Amino acid sequence: MHQALVIDEIVQVVFDFCLDFGSDTLTRVARTCKAWRDPALDRLWYRLIDVTPLLQLVPGIIRVNGVYVFESPVSPDLSSLRFYAPRVKHIVHRRNLQLHPHMSSIIAGSVDGMFTGLTTVQLALLNCHSVCPILGPGTMLKKLDLDLSFHPGVFDSSNKTTCDYLSNLPRLETLSLRGLASENLNRTISVTSHLQSISLRLSTSLNADTIIAISRFPALVELEFHAPHIRVADLAEKWSSVGSGVCFPSLRSLNIRASTSLVGELLQNMHSIKLHTIYLDVEPVAQTDEAWIDLFNIMKDKTPNLHDFTIDHHVDTDTPGSDSDTGLPINDLGNDHPISHSNGFENLLRFQLIYPLFALRKLQRIVFDTTPPILVHDEDLEKLGSQLPQLTHLDLGAVPTVDPRWVPKATLKGLYLFSQKSSNLKDLIIPIDLSTSSRPDELLKTFTTTHDTLRNINISTLTPPDPTSMARFLASLFPCLEHADGVADHFDEWQHIQTSIRGIKGASES
Fold it and tell me: Which InterPro entries match (predicted)?
């Protein structure tokens, strides 16, 4: 064999090609020569999407009525399992797997120190809660993702399994749990203080004490949790009762589903100045102007280094965007026409309310995923461009289909004004009112400068755009534009616009 074929980088390329033909090919490669055997077997067992191959390594295991059992009561031969288990780095298992308790206990009692290379485990405990014990203590495990299930029938077993397993993971860095958690599991999470990343989607089973405990984790960098059920007063009281201390000292990313007031309470107590990303999934209840303003003022003071901010807020309603009494579009009612409570929109998020965020000069990405889209006027766009010049991505929401009950306020003129101020923008999603806009051809005459960084734009309009004039407008204003589209109802028009823009760019380059 040529010496080049034992260089690890080249060997891995060969194995990549082998995997294209299935795992059997890699098995045959492992038999080719001694130099390739271990690297090929390591690659073959590196990632398992099912733990069944591990069971097949133990002679005498059979499946009876869907349950894996030992064929005879003799002591099992685990030599093959011991040979291959250290090669496994990642395990994912979501299929139904039932192990007889006797078999599970025998294997679990023999695997101590067997899975020495395992770094990632992802399991659905509704189907395979007996898998964790046979994996043994995870001395090298860094990432654990468990679906505990919301099914009450497995509540006790899945929670006990999780508590026992978490207690033997000294190097765990990332923990993700979904389902219903017991009080005991909440307490177990609270003492796993070496974690760097936590995701807790536990519905109403997550308690305030756990959040307080997590806030003291010194190395925690990334946090996600759902807490729409937790009362702000309860959280504030518990924070006061534990006394002073540094909260979230290292946090860089926060993804939270809660009320605006609870998010504000959390940020008020935060000591990290490293917070880089906030994803705010606001409970589906209309928020008052005061609630939004309070939150944004807190953010202004507590998140000076924020780069990425997303608001995800949708209020369920059968009549989004209209007042059942007046029949007027929802954003045309004005301050003298309070929006009917019957349609679920007591207050909409208006762009003027976010003005405190303009103090966060490092913001690069803003997303408003709201229903209906945030109310933005031309003057808002101009101010946004001048106040946040570092923006590279702006998503002001999109109307997924034409709905006359919702009328955007921004016009093509506002888009032009914004482009003159926002010199770093690469991606833009914006609703535009074409009915009150100047014609694109007329606006072209007023252009003084172009915007050279924008690559992608999505424009939501109630009326279909004129493909020819819109293509000329966008190609002239954004000469580096690569992709333009709009709502699904205007698919044909935007296909024409996209084709025309390419033609205009091609002609200018020739």
Answer: F-box_dom (IPR001810), LRR_dom_sf (IPR032675)
